[in-house]
Amino acid sequence: MEEDSRLVFHKERLFENIDFMNDFMERRNLNWTFIIKAFYNYPESFITELTKSSCKSIGSDNNIHLHLVKLNNPTIETWYLNYDGKKVSSQYIDVDLTHSKDNLSKRTCLMLAIDPLRHGATYTPDLTCEKYGAYLDCENIPNKKYFDAWKKLKLPPEKTQSLGTSVSFKELDFLISNGINHFRLGEIILTGKNITDQTIISGLRTDVFTSKRIISYFSITKHST
After folding, report:
1. What local confidence, expressed as pLDDT, does residue 89 receive?
2. Residue 26 — very low, low, confident or very high, per pLDDT cuts 50/70/90?
3. Nearest by Cα to 36 from 20, 25, 23, 17
4. Can you tell me the distance from the alpha carbon of 189 to that of 110, in angstroms, rounded to the nearest whole number?
5. pLDDT band at 1, cuts 50/70/90?
6. Burial of 121 (C-beta count, 10 Å sphere; 0-12/13-18/19+)
7. Which of 39, 34, 35, 8 is nearest to 19 (CA)?
8. In whole angstroms, what is the distance from residue 28 CA to residue 42 CA?
9. Cα dihedral sign, 21-25-26-30
10. Which domains are delineated in the chain?
11. CA distances for 186 relative to 31, 77, 90, 157, 217, angstroms
């Protein structure tokens, strides 16, 4: 008999992880956005279910999913991961995360050049954005020199400074000391584990997805629910 390899999603467990992270961040005066890129090819009904959680901010590079989020729960802040830097006019997008200085607006989160191998705009004090960020390594903990470079920019503390990702979550205290106050989290919310060493993050469930086979982030992204 062939082993059952179905990946089973447990909505209530994901909601528990979101609740935990909301509380965790709030106690530290931080904000975070739930990045749902893993669900790029998932059906609309799945995305609709996510809007029933306590999540306050959702980000994706899938425009259709962000439209669904806003239509089903207008109170959720939507972040568009605009990797191509194209012009965005959709009324369903609250934050345009982009490296392009063209068409800057109040909803722009301008990605700055910190890592020379990744897209980023040059920071100048005359910029009027309320949100700034950077693209850094998402699989390995970024070199601390990039966070040191960020600190030297001396961005006003009231600005949103979005550099924290799932891979750098274990360095949270160091990031805070460098001015970072916003995290873009995806994988750890789904797996409950640190990316680099697969250690369990206390307070997060590790069984949002279950299967008789080993669960990986890759298997989640390929799953069709």
Report:
1. 87
2. very high
3. 17
4. 25
5. very low
6. buried
7. 34
8. 33
9. negative
10. 8-214 (3.20.20.10)
11. 14, 16, 23, 25, 10
